[in-house]
Give the backbone structure.
Amino acid sequence: MAEQPLYSERRWTSHDGLSLFARDYPGADGPAKLPIIAIHGLTRNSADFDAIAPLIARGGRRVLALDIRGRGKSDRATDPMTYQPPVYAKDVLGLMEVAGIERAVFLGTSMGGLITMAITALKSRVVAAAILNDIGPQVSPEGLARIAAYSGQPVDTPTWAAAAAYAKRINEVALPHYTDADWDAFARRVFRDGTEGSPVLDYDPDIAVPIRAAGAKALAPNLWPFFRRLAKKRPTLLIRGGTSDLLSADIAAKMQKAAPDMRYAEIPDIGHAPMLDEPESKAAIFEFLRDVP
């Protein structure tokens, strides 16, 4: 008998007519629990959650892992200036509406955390709890400049070995323990087969257009009011890579001061951002979810 897939494929249409995609992992039988909305980082896609999502689903929670517009199996936008968190937030709310989800726990990595804060500003009641993975209302300019430097830039990857080498070059500072096999698997998540047979990055290069348009302003966003609103009255967990260049230890400390009830986990020897397959990440997430309806 063929093995059943871990998730089904779900599509919905954005307010401006894009066909958007999510992986829908059904929760195991048991007492009803709030679902998880998992949102990836700037240049990534729903495959980033392929380690943690099945584990959460096995524990009884449905998980919807999204491909944000311009990434993965979601349509590319006709207007690149829609590649911004307020628009992404509306896309997520659209999925919740068609899926019949009134409230959820949000798991946001990097940009996904910014989208979670934007959703809180737009429709606060839908966010029951939040897990922020290596992101806060303020970011280190050095880390954001590093990400902006490679986002949307053309890459020469004629083979999958070249794609793995590129993935390693860009990310090994964050994941120094990865083996060649790990980098090959990483490349398979962030690249796809191009029309000419060579691997190509699985996102629209134009996602970088709003970042370039904003210039220096993009390197110093101030989202403290959104974070305080998010963390004030709902369970919140902050996960930080111990060597992260995007979420510094000082910013994490300021977040803890602003939200004393927020839980905190630091993942040693990992940069931006933890992949959530680390034992410390999984332990923090499941301990947090035990106390969430």
User: Anything to note?
Assistant: The chain is about 35% helix and 20% strand. The chain has a mean pLDDT of 94.
